[in-house]
Amino acid sequence: MKHVKVLGPGCKRCQATADMVHAEAAKLGIDIGLEKVTDYAAIAGYGIAATPGVVIDGKIVHAGGLPKPEDIAKWLQEE
Amino acid sequence: MSTAALKHRHADNAAVWIAGAAGFIVLWFIVYARLAPLSEWIVSLFPLARASRSGDAAVFFVFETPKVLMLLTLVVFAMGMVRSFFSPERTRAFLAGKREGLGNIAAAGLGTVTPFCSCSAVPMFLGFVSAGVPLGVTFSFLIAAPMVNEVALGLLFALIGWKVALVYLAFGLGVAIVAGWVIGRLHLEGWLEQWVRDMRTGVAQIPSIRLTTIDRVKAGIEAVKDIVGKVWMWVAVGIAAGALIHGYVPTGLLASIMGRGAWWSVPVAVVLGIPMYSNAAGIIPVVQALLSKGAALGTSLAFMMSVIALSFPEMIILRKVLSVRLIAVFVGVVGAGILAVGFLFNAIF
Q1: Which of A60, B159, B199, B220 suits a disulfide with B80, CB 3.0-4.6 Å?
Q2: Three-class SS of residue A63?
Q3: How far, in Å, CA of B234 to CA of B227, rounded?
Q4: B318-338 burial, b if ≥16 CB within 10 A, otherwise e?
């Protein structure tokens, strides 16, 4: 199972990003556990400067703006 | 697929994209050139006397709305492409450890082109400060980013003219640079919330994705969908309000209360602008109408800057990382800068 974290204070884009991750994972049949990190200190702790951010298995793969669905698919399939 | 075939497909794609973009721009100009007669014709379909006040207001609305939205689309598209060259992480890396002065200038400039969303303001603030960007430099960025944006510039250009748009750009940057520098000189780092001061985090390495020209064109289209899709309603409402002012408010009425002679109107405009929360899209059409009825340019600009740059919702968001005292200094310094712009303009023009 992949652990995905969506970093963002709860704005519309962050929710959209979380929804996209769910949709892509379901499409690919990948089992994920998604956690939304909304605490400002925790978000800043990842060292990113723009939200939404995406962290997969502890690795930051994206920061700032809506990610593209095909990129999400790529990140989820990476080992 | 062989590499040759792949290359061919890419070339095809690029050609299609370029042809599409060129076709769109040609179509844009054809429609734009015919907007005035088109709007007269549309209004003539309604039972309105063209020479009446309501006729005036209707023509203004029917002509200005598509005109402004078309120009805005073009500006937002271009800025969307420009923004694809910048990212908050790269901007932060560039500003980290920069000295005050030059750092403030760079921060304000980058604030206008770095992708920014107001919901990202706090994470960005924390990300900047914790990575070693000086507080004053961070403020220059955070003041410029929302104030000098493509929607404000595009609308000013479309409704009032390129000179005023340029002036707004220059003075918006000026306020951001000077206000950030002043905040830096005051050494207010101690006024940050305690947990913010204690935070020293690393800088994340985010794998960068190489963008092709097509990707950048797509980024421009995305920006149009996103921004114009969001603000078109505000633009329409703003122009409707402007149309009413145009049709019904007698010329010169505002000269006495918002004119150059009334010096007190500048501070009043700034104070009135703080609780008002509107984006540039709604406020600029109204400002344009006010200008045409005798309001002074400086007073109008001050009002607009105050509405856009100083807003209660933003302060409430910033309260999570800044103490009340620091927010008060922020409002005071930025407000003073806007005040100065207002007075200066009324004196010059």
Answers
A1: B220
A2: strand
A3: 11
A4: beebbbeebbebbeebbbebb
Q: Between the CA of residue B233 and those of B32, B40, B200, B281, what are the distances in Å?
A: 20, 22, 42, 9
User: Residues B20-37: what's their mean pLDDT?
Assistant: 87
Q: What is the pLDDT of residue A22?
A: 85
A35 vs B: CB within 8 A: no
Using alpha carbons, select from A40, A39, A29, A71 the residue that is nearest to residue A54.
A71
The shortest C-alpha distance from B224 to chain A (Å) reads 14
CB contact under 8 A, A51 and B123: yes
Of B88, B89, B122, the CB nearest to A9: B122
Full-model pTM: 0.81
Query: Which residue matches tokens 């703006």?
Result: A65
Residues in chain B closer than 8 A to A68 (CB atoms): none
- Please answer whether residues B179 and B309 qualify as being in contact, where contact means their C-beta atoms are separated by less than 8 angstroms: no
Domain residue ranges of chain B, discontinuous segments joined by +: 10-198+230-349
Which residue pairs from A31-34 have beta carbons closer than 8 angstroms and sit at least 24 positions apart in sequence?
A: A31/A1, A31/A2, A32/A1, A32/A2, A32/A3, A32/A4, A32/A76, A33/A1, A33/A2, A33/A3, A33/A4, A34/A4, A34/A5, A34/A6
Sequential DSSP letters for B39-74: HHHHHHTSS--TTSHHHHHHHHHHHHHHHHHHHHHH
Whether residues B199 and A63 touch (CB distance < 8 A) is answered with: no
Task: Report residue B174's pLDDT band, with 50, 70 and 90 as the boundaries.
Answer: very high
Percent with pLDDT over 90 in chain B: 5
| Closest CA–CA distance from residue B191 to any residue of chain A (Å) | 17
Length of chain B, please? 349
- According to DSSP, residue B322 is labeled B
A44 and B128 within 8 Å at the Cβ level: the answer is no
End-to-end, the C-alpha distance of chain A in Å comes to 11
End-to-end CA distance of chain B: 65
Give the pLDDT mean for B277-289.
Answer: 79
